[in-house]
Amino acid sequence: MTWSYDSSLTQDRDQVRFLVGDTATANQLVQNEEIDWALTQGGIWFASSLIADSVAGKFSDSADKQVGDLRLSNSQKSKQFRDLAANFRSNMSRISVAPYFGGLTESGKDVDEDNTDLVAPFFRRDLMDTQVDYEQEA
Fold first, then answer.
1. pLDDT tens track for 91-136
2. Which of 56, 18, 16 is nearest to 39 (CA)?
3. Which of 39, 55, 74, 109 matches a 20 to 30 Å C-alpha distance to 3?
4. Each residue's pLDDT tens digit, 7-33
5. Rounded to an integer, what distance in angstroms lies between the CA atom of residue 16 and that of residue 38?
6. pLDDT value at position 131?
7. Could you tell me if 33 and 1 are in contact, meaning their C-beta atoms sit under 8 angstroms apart?
8. Considering the entire predicted model, what is its pTM?
């Protein structure tokens, strides 16, 4: 298992580490392979939410400890990472979906008409341009 972080944030893995806060070599939370797997499940925001949930799970297994005046609250860390994961999922719903409005320009309409993968509309402007003489067909 490996751990690496490059603050230039050119790699998806480094962006996930940045968002989750796993950037300190001395306090590694997840391994590169875990982030790489999370990235195969979705984009950066989804992977970040999976990793934050995973880290929250790690802290939820650890008990809170107190020695004298020193207190270590792992349950609070777990809650913070769960909240962070929820925040990522919220961002994902705002950021990753963009509406598409077709036919706003002549060139856009031409592109849509040439795209054979698009579903043909049921109605179109020139639908009634072709007239059929029903009397001759009968």
1. 876 665 667 777 788 888 888 888 888 887 776 676 666 666 666 6
2. 16
3. 74
4. 999 999 999 999 999 999 999 999 999
5. 10
6. 63
7. yes
8. 0.62
DSSP 8-state secondary structure symbol assigned to residue 63: P
For residue 42, the tally of other CB atoms under 10 A from its CB is 14
Distance of alpha carbon 52 from alpha carbon 85, whole angstroms: 5
Between CA 27 and CA 5 the distance in angstroms is: 12
How far is the C-alpha of 10 from the C-alpha of 6, rounded, in Å? 8
